[in-house]
């Protein structure tokens, strides 16, 4: 990495890029310092967009897939007719997976928990735990959800509770055998504060800025099996966030979830206004929608636990 920064990467068009350049991963160092670790989750999955290739390289579909493994151009086309995300027409939605995997197996009621059409392949296997372009984006690391691996931890979202926003990881892990998945075995003990609320609720108040943004994004998705009124109330917890981007996400989410007659009240809140204007508007929204699930003492403890890491924008 240091040599590339000093001398350039040495790549010439038509030559093998991999021979002169290596992708940046969580453990990449410059001068002995791991400068890029905060751009990845603890398991190496990218936290930020622009690292989609690294996510792909970590995927079993790339490492063990047929014909040399899954590559970027298996799903994307640089010069196709779909500039938005550049997804090939024959790879849109589930077709990205069924070009290799057998559809009958994927839709079987005895596999994949019988979710059927409720969720997409990407919803479980490439969950939206990557931040970029003011959105929660799929991470491009294809993996099997393992909520049990993150019980008792607060440092990475998981696929199951990003959809089941009112549930804990312990609940998700215990549900696996009932849904036809392998028994995860003995589960780690949950952290004490995991009894206070769901994983997304905890991330919304106690996570780092990126976790808080992704929690809000999860609460806005149409497939979430929780009443909109409840989700609106929970999101109001973020209206006084110290981070402007989190407040903006909360404001946008409430605009998306508000009833038409509530739109004017939401628009009266400006996430970038001075506290003198912003706080009364936030209080009015909490009065209208209800507040979050935590007691003042619990909220104070969660906020004290926050990792005040800046949102690295690596694009």
From TrEMBL:
<dbReference type="GO" id="GO:0046872">
    <property type="term" value="F:metal ion binding"/>
</dbReference>
<keyword id="KW-0249">Electron transport</keyword>
<dbReference type="InterPro" id="IPR036280">
    <property type="entry name" value="Multihaem_cyt_sf"/>
</dbReference>
<keyword id="KW-0408">Iron</keyword>
<keyword id="KW-0349">Heme</keyword>
<keyword id="KW-0732">Signal</keyword>
<dbReference type="InterPro" id="IPR051829">
    <property type="entry name" value="Multiheme_Cytochr_ET"/>
</dbReference>
<keyword id="KW-0479">Metal-binding</keyword>
<protein>
    <submittedName>
        <fullName>Uncharacterized protein</fullName>
    </submittedName>
</protein>
<keyword id="KW-0813">Transport</keyword>
<dbReference type="InterPro" id="IPR038266">
    <property type="entry name" value="NapC/NirT_cytc_sf"/>
</dbReference>
């Amino acid at each position: 990495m240091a040599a590339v920064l000093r001398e350039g990467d040495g790549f010439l068009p038509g030559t093998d890029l991999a021979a002169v350049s290596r992708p940046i991963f969580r453990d990449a160092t410059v001068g002995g310092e791991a400068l890029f670790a905060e751009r990845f989750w603890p398991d190496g999955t990218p936290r930020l967009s622009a690292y989609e290739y690294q996510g792909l390289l970590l995927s079993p579909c790339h490492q063990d897939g047929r014909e040399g493994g899954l590559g970027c151009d298996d799903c994307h086309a640089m010069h196709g007719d779909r500039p938005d995300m550049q997804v090939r027409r024959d790879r849109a939605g589930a077709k990205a997976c069924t070009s290799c995997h057998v559809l009958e197996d994927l839709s079987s009621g005895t596999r994949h928990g019988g979710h059927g059409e409720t969720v997409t392949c990407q919803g479980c296997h490439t969950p939206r735990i990557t931040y970029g372009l003011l959105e929660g984006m799929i991470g491009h690391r294809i993996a099997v959800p393992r909520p049990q691996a993150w019980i008792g931890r607060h440092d990475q979202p998981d696929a199951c509770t990003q959809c089941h926003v009112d549930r804990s990881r312990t609940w998700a892990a215990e549900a696996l055998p009932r849904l036809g998945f392998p028994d995860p075995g003995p589960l780690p003990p949950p952290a004490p504060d995991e009894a206070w609320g769901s994983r997304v609720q905890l991330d919304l108040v106690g996570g780092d800025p990126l976790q808080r943004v992704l929690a809000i994004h999860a609460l806005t998705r149409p497939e979430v099996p929780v009443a909109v009124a409840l989700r609106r109330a929970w999101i109001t917890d973020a209206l006084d966030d110290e981070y402007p981007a989190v407040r903006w996400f909360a404001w946008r989410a409430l605009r998306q979830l508000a009833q038409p007659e509530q739109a004017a009240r939401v628009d009266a809140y400006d996430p970038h206004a001075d506290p003198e204007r912003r706080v009364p508007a936030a209080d009015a929204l909490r009065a209208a929608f209800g507040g979050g699930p935590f007691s003042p003492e619990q909220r104070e403890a969660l906020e004290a636990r926050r990792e005040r890491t800046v949102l690295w924008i690596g694009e």
